[in-house]
Write a structure and sequence with these properties.
Blueprint (H helix, E strand, L loop, with lengths): L2 H22 L8 H13 L4 H19 L8 H11 L1 H13 L5 H16 L25 H25 L4 H17 L17 E8 L13 H20 L8 E3 L13 H14 L3 E9 L2 E13 L7 E7 L13 H4 L12 E2 L7 E4 L2 E7 L6 H9 L14 E6 L9 H16 L3 E5 L4 E4 L5 E5 L5 E8 L6 H5 L2 H27 L19
Parallel strand pairs: 1-2, 2-3, 4-6, 8-9, 9-10
Antiparallel strand pairs: 1-13, 3-4, 4-5, 7-8, 10-11, 11-12
Helix pairs in contact: 1-2, 1-3, 2-7, 3-4, 3-5, 5-6, 6-7, 6-15, 7-8, 7-13, 9-10
Length: 539
Amino acid sequence: MNPRSQMMLRVSGTIASGILLVLAFPPHDLFWCAPVAVAVATLSWHGASTRAGFLLGILFGFSFFLPHITWMRVVGDDAWVMLSCLFIPAFGLLGAGIAITSRLRFWVLAVPLLWVSTEALRSRFPFDGFPWGRLAFSQSESPLAPYAAIGGAPLVTAVVATMGALLALAWVMRRQPRICVASLIGVALLSTAGGLVPLPTAGSTVGGADSVTAAVVQGGVPGVGLDFLGQREAVLENHVKETLVLAADVRGGKVAQPDFVIWPENSTDIDPLMDAQAGALIQRAVDAIGVPILVGAVVNVPSDPSHVWNAGIVWMPTASATPGPTTFYVKQHPVPFGEYIPMRSLLAHLNDRLARIPRDFAAGESTGVLQLGPARIGDLICFEVAYDGLGQAAVLGQGVQGPLAGRGARLMTIQTNNATYAHTGQPEQQLAMSRLRAVEHGRTVLIASTSGISAIIEPDGSFAGVLGEVGAGYLEAKVPLRDELTLSDRLGPWPERLAVLAAVGMVLAAAVFNRRERRVGSPVRTPSADSIQEPVSDQ
């Protein structure tokens, strides 16, 4: 095959792999497309020059990442393209890495290591990262999800990428039956071995009750999209109203008395610590249900009026020893361009929509472990569910301040506001992440959303209840409390760190090997230009 045709084949394969990977994620949920997409991408980049691999990786980023986050178009097409362009270069590094390591005999091992490494990069840089589109987040409904209990999201990504690399190897070596068959057997084993991972369903605590009755309230919003931001009073009133419905149903014997209630992020954008009317409305709802409510609120930073906090506040009944607002968690990971404007002085005059964020959100400093009635919860707010370290810290009790210092969460709560992105696929994508986190930490996950999707997720990732989008209602269920740690939480960030070190080592080894071959004037051992069609005997 001539070089031009070869490059056209690489380009076509790259675009096809990106489209396949889009289909693996919610709302499409064709999770089996993920390893196939990795296989097609690997074959498309295998044996290419490093420069060509980088450019092909960029092309893959555009064909996958842009369609994957089309929900950002609600904010604006420019915001959608800008966010994509910030993180697509990481896919270029992935393509370059797979291209250069394809010169090594054990290139199959490099593929999963490079996927994990580039996802680690995207989760941290730039602007503290944006982990959307990690391979692991496509697998919450697949047989691979249980691997999260062993090595978290990085291991799930590694398994998906390994399956893709083995499929690619089977194609390259299709005229060598033993290697081809062994590769396919490896794929089959990886796809089924996850079923052997034990996943907890019962409570397990060192002391006290091993279960609680939890309620989640979804009050609904008057509208969707960015316009909901101007309807603060109605949003708060909706959540009060739905909590009163729950209280009436408890009195009528329709549902059990909950031990606590979760309200979503932005359930009040009116600072209830400063606005007496907002505070009184919340207190009315708390007193009606008679148990603490975790209230999602936007509050002013006491020491800095130029900033606000995105907080989860434990609000106690009047009859309790400490009525009203007590402990709280402040979101540690504000979203750039959503909750704060990087380089505000430079960008603010370029886009009128930035005026919707007149004050930046300040980041919290303490992990969100709170005592909510009989439950010690680990609170995450909205997009924080996408970041590995925040959930791990909550379960392990790391970075917890105050009387609960050093004590880990027995269940997880996720307060979110997806009203901006209703019916765009974003709520489904976030729900998938939450299900994977339940398995990863072996904890019940309670999701409270203003407009959906709200859910109660068991520690094994199954649903105990779901409320759909753009509606109001509540969920109530008896859920387990757990102190026992999964292997994933015991290992912490080390699997990802070791994968990054190994990936860097393989790239450096490939670079040294190529340079040595050029110095002695002998040809580099690499697949032929036609390797996508013809097997290479020395691989």
